[in-house]
Design brief:
Elements lengths: L13 H9 L6 H15 L6 E6 L5 H15 L1 H6 L6 E5 L10 H11 L5 H5 L14 H15 L3 E5 L10 H18 L3 E5 L11 H5 L1 E6 L7 H17 L12 H8 L3 H18 L6 H7 L3 H18 L3 H11 L4 H4 L29
Parallel strand pairs: 1-4, 1-5, 2-3, 3-4
Helix pairs in contact: 1-12, 5-7, 11-12, 12-13
């Protein structure tokens, strides 16, 4: 297979070549599966108001979100032509708090800004103090403005990136309040909310049964080398990237599959970031390909990769259903254990005792045997 970048790109400045590869996005099975599940959840939420898209850092969640935004905008072209107020999708990032507690007022203001809300500066000021415009509006006032804006814009989905920052609270009780706040906002405005984050937000849906019932979780997994189909898919990803690198000689990434896997933990986003750094180093050094030295220099530190692997293992364990959990559920619901529901085994006869069955008879007497 020939290299897949434009041939004249090799004659462009290094900055242009690097920019071309950085924006290169490839489709792969895990991403396609998650995208289809996300589309299905939006089209048929079945009572859910919150959709959580969960996965390791660098798994491709941002790519998934941007792809969904483009899809929703494309589908809404006709409606936007007749209804200029309609906004098919809104995206906002949950900013990590500086003081250790998530700032809802700042979040609401950022959401209003994302929807190009007019007179936003007036909403920042308190409506009860017109003579003091610098006085800040209350959190409740800003939320009311956001509710009105969502009802006017009627987005198909409201997407929240870096959703794990919602867990920045002081106590477990406050943690439940965080999710209840988001759920009530979604229900009040009739707007489906999609949360994109690491494995941390997964625990948020288990804080209450009501919250869990109103939530749907979509897992974006890593690729595993011990699964034949996933091994093949990861190999195809490597091959696609190696042919897309705008260098005179494509590197043999496929021949270093296990090394590339160890560098990325099977996460395509982590892999792409590594190759971005390596390409920048190669272009700066004017070498024709990604040499082992360049790849090593671009690698994440081993402790960082080790921590990534630990977080992935812990996150994947949260999705696993254990026998103990099943047994606890059955016990709480009063369902007898499987062995107690089995029919009793037939009792064995004592040796020498006839089985109690009816003998066959005949109208004619048998002839004696001489």
């Amino acid at each position: 297979m020939p290299q897949t970048f434009p041939p004249d790109l090799l004659h462009q400045p290094p900055a242009d070549r690097l920019a071309w590869f950085r924006q290169k996005v490839i489709r792969h099975p895990h991403l396609d599966t998650a995208f289809q599940a996300l589309q299905d959840a939006i089209r048929a939420p079945a009572g859910a108001t919150l959709i959580l898209v969960i996965g390791a850092t660098g798994i491709g969640k941002t790519t998934l979100r941007l792809r969904l935004e483009r899809q929703l905008i494309t589908e809404a072209q006709a409606q936007m032509a007749t209804d200029p107020a309609h906004m098919p999708v809104v995206s906002v990032e949950a900013i990590a708090p500086e003081q250790g507690t998530f700032n809802w007022r700042d979040y609401y203001l950022r959401a209003l800004q994302a929807m190009d809300e007019p007179l936003l500066e007036e909403k920042r000021a308190s409506p009860h103090a017109p003579r003091h415009p610098r006085q800040r509006a209350t959190t409740a006032t800003v939320r009311q403005a956001l509710e009105q804006c969502l009802q006017q814009r009627r987005p198909t989905a409201f997407l929240i990136d870096e959703a794990q920052h919602l867990k920045k609270v002081g106590s477990g009780r406050r943690l439940l309040d965080q999710m209840d706040t988001l759920k009530s906002l979604a229900q009040t405005t009739g707007t489906l909310h999609g949360l994109f984050g690491t494995y941390d937000p997964l625990t948020l849906t288990n804080l209450s049964a009501q919250l869990g019932r109103r939530s749907r979780v979509i897992h974006v997994p890593r690729y595993r080398l011990d699964q034949a189909d996933e091994h093949r898919a990861f190999r195809n990803v490597l091959y696609t990237f190696q042919q897309a690198l705008p260098l005179p000689e494509p590197p043999d990434l496929v021949g270093q599959l296990e090394h590339c896997y160890a560098q990325s933990a099977g996460c395509v986003g982590v892999l792409k970031d590594w190759l971005n750094r390596a390409l920048a180093l190669a272009l700066d050094a004017t070498v024709p390909t990604l040499t082992p030295a360049v790849l090593a220099q671009a690698s994440l530190a081993l402790p960082t990769r080790l921590q990534l692997a630990r977080e992935i293992q812990a996150g994947e364990a949260a999705f696993a259903t254990t026998h103990q959990q099943q047994a606890e559920l059955h016990a709480l619901l009063g369902i007898p254990p499987a062995d107690a529901m089995a029919p009793p085994a037939p009792r064995s006869r004592r040796a020498g005792r006839r089985q109690q069955t009816r003998d066959t008879t005949s109208d004619a007497a048998e002839e004696p045997v001489c």
